[in-house]
Design goal:
Number of helices: 3
Number of strands: 11
Radius of gyration: 17 Å
Structural class: mainly beta
Shape: globular
Distance between the termini: 30 Å
C-alpha cells in the first residue's frame, strides 16, 4: 500500500528526526521469537518531498493519526504523566505500565510471558476484527529519560497486509503473524525510525500500524510509560 497508510499530524517536522529502511525476516535469532520482522538497518534520510506523503487527508480519523509531541514541563515522572493522561478526555484509558530499557536494544518490546523480543508487531489487546480495526484505541507513550530512543513504524497497515495474505480477510482478526507472512512473501514494506527525546512522546494507531521501539546507538537507558485510549487530535503541542 502507498505510504499514506501512515498519517502524521505534522509531517513537515519529520526530516530532522526520521530515517527510513527496509524490513527483513529474522529466524532463530537468540532472544527473539522464532520468526520476526525487523528493520534491515539500512537507514537513510527521508527523501525530499517524502514527509508530505504522510500528511493526513480529509478521511483520516483521529484514531488513525500519528502525533509526536512535547510533554508539559510539569510532567517528569510516572505519577505526573498518569495524572495528565487521566485529564485527556477518555474516562477509561487502559494503563499498559512502564518499563526501563537499557541502551543498545534493536527491539525494545518483548512478549511478557517469554521475555522474547517481538520485532515489528501490532497491539492486539482487544483483538478487533478486520472490519472494525480502525476503531481501536491509540497507544500513547512518553519518554521520561534520561536517554533518547526511537519509535519504529511500518509504512503499510495491517489491513492492507491482511488483504494480501488472506483470501477471507474480511472475517479475519489481524495478528502479528500476518505481518511476518507478508515479509516472508517478500512484499514491499519499509519502516520509519523516529527519534523521541526525553520529555517527548507519541500517539499512534498501533493496532493498525506495525511498530516497535529501539534504543540502538544510545548511551543511556530510558523509562517509558504507555496507555491506550480514545483521544482527539491536537491535545499536545507538536515537536519543534
Amino acid at each position: 500500500m502507498h505510504p499514506a497508510a501512515i498519517a502524521f499530524q505534522d509531517p513537515a517536522r519529520l526530516h530532522a528526526r526520521c530515517e527510513i529502511a527496509g524490513v527483513r525476516r529474522r529466524t532463530l535469532q537468540p532472544g527473539y521469537e522464532t520468526t520476526v520482522a525487523v528493520p534491515d538497518e539500512t537507514w537513510q534520510p527521508l527523501p525530499d518531498g517524502h514527509p508530505e506523503r504522510f500528511a493526513p487527508s480529509i478521511f483520516t480519523r483521529d484514531s488513525g493519526l500519528v502525533e509526536l509531541f512535547r510533554l508539559p514541563d510539569t510532567v517528569f515522572d510516572i505519577p505526573t504523566a498518569t495524572a495528565l493522561v487521566e485529564m485527556l478526555g477518555d474516562p477509561f484509558p487502559v494503563t499498559l505500565g512502564w518499563s526501563t530499557d537499557r541502551p543498545g536494544l534493536a527491539s525494545a518490546h518483548t512478549e511478557p510471558d517469554t521475555g522474547l523480543h517481538l520485532g515489528l508487531h501490532i497491539d492486539n489487546h482487544h483483538a478487533l476484527p478486520y472490519p472494525s480495526r480502525e476503531t481501536a484505541r491509540r497507544r500513547l507513550c512518553v519518554n521520561l529519560g534520561p536517554g533518547s530512543r526511537y519509535l519504529l513504524l511500518a509504512d503499510t497497515d495491517i489491513k492492507s497486509i491482511c488483504r494480501t495474505v488472506h483470501h477471507n480477510y474480511a472475517t479475519h482478526t489481524p495478528t502479528t503473524a500476518d505481518l511476518r507472512m507478508y515479509v516472508t512473501l517478500r512484499r514491499p514494506v519499509h519502516v520509519l525510525r523516529i527519534r523521541v527525546d526525553p520529555g517527548e512522546g507519541w500517539l499512534a494507531p498501533t493496532a493498525v500500524l506495525p511498530y516497535d521501539e529501539s534504543t540502538s546507538g544510545q548511551s543511556l537507558p530510558s523509562v517509558t510509560a504507555s496507555w491506550l485510549g480514545h483521544w482527539h487530535r491536537g491535545l499536545f503541542p507538536p515537536l519543534i
